[in-house]
Amino acid sequence: MSKDRLYLFDTTLRDGAQTAGIEFSLEDKISIAALLEEIGVDYVEGGFPGANVIDDQFFAEKRTQKARFTAFGMTKRAGRSVSNDPGVQAVLNARSDAACYVAKTSPRQVKIALGISLEENLDGLRETVAATVAAGKEALIDCEHFFDGYKEDPAYALKCVKTALDAGARWVVLCDTNGGTMPSEVEAIVTAVLKVAPGDHIGIHAHDDTGQAVANSLAAVRAGARQIQGTLNGIGERCGNANLVTLIPTLLLKPVFSDHLETGISLEQLTHLTQVSRAFDEILNRAPARQAPYVGASAFATKAGIHASALAKDFPLTSTCRPKASVMSAPSW
Ligand SMILES: [Zn+2]
Predict the structure, then answer these.
(1) What is the pTM assigned to this prediction?
(2) For residues 291 and 169, what is the distance between their CA atoms, to the nearest angstrom?
(3) How many whole angstroms from 120 Cα to the centroid of ligand 1?
(4) What phi, psi does 168 have (nearest 5°)?
């Protein structure tokens, strides 16, 4: 039976750059893009062209060989055409393969934050996606506060998803922007979205404000979403984004996912993950988290006690706990 392809979208250089105390130089961005290529993610979102000088310089060249190099921006403003919107033009003129635009899908936010009509918001989505496709780029829409918007008005939230897909968006990404949605809610709402949209065009972007960004990403995948957005070591605004360094081994090693899903990452590339995670910490000038799942110095280290005793006796319980040492061995440094 062929497996479903699951795509991994890294936003370390865009959403991760919102982390308090982190500011990437151009050289940092180039080094981090190389680390992401080493792991083998499908998309590298490099930043926000038109928003600052470093991102303009970064997008003056294509910075990836294999991953789809992605620029971030906002959908067209109401009251002006795409060709007269400098933000959209900066994204379209970037040397990128794909463009990801944030859009609002909650009626309350459209009215209060944007001050425009619900129809104008849909027009902005439609025209921005169409212009991106016409420019020969892949279009993605990040639906900000999607889960809260869906709870407020499911029909309008779904209308936004359909409008973007009908205009030619490759992906519509459902964002839990404030990180407050529970995994059971994510699974139920993604299931409802997939009644009107194909799962291989739906992504998840989860924040970690309740410590559930990884769980929420996996809940969306269980419901049928086929793209996950996250960052290296889970960096990101406030409590961070979904941690790709935790998600990747889970997706590749846990049969509940690996039996029916495949990513663009090989088992050989998985062996680089610890090294990449630590090299990234080095760029951030941070000590690696000892207790990070899979890659921390304490991962798989069992202190003497009943668990160690059970391991020694090869107690059957340990077969589910024991690491695949050959795959996840830590580097010697
Ligand atoms: Zn975000």
Answers:
(1) 0.92
(2) 39
(3) 24
(4) 115, 10
Mean pLDDT score, 41-67: 97
**Cα 278 to middle of ligand 1, angstroms:** 23
CA 3 to centroid of ligand 1, rounded, Å: 29
Q: How far is the CA of 15 from the centre of ligand 1 (A)?
A: 6
Percent of the chain with pLDDT over 90: 89
Say what the alpha-carbon torsion angle 53, 56, 62, 67 is, to the nearest 10 degrees: 90
**How far does the centroid of ligand 1 lie from the alpha carbon of residue 205, in Å?**
7
Q: What CATH code is carried by the domain that includes residue 152?
A: 3.20.20.70
pLDDT band at 271 (very low <50, low <70, confident <90, very high): very high
Is residue 17 assigned to a domain? yes
301 lies in some domain: no
Element (H, E) at 274: helix 273-284
Query: Which of 126, 192, 115, 190 minimizes the C-alpha distance to 155?
Result: 192
Number of folded domains that form the chain: 1
185 and 219 in contact (C-beta within 8 Å)? no
Task: List the domain range (segments joined by +) for residue 82.
Answer: 4-284
**Residue 159 reports pLDDT greater than 60:** yes
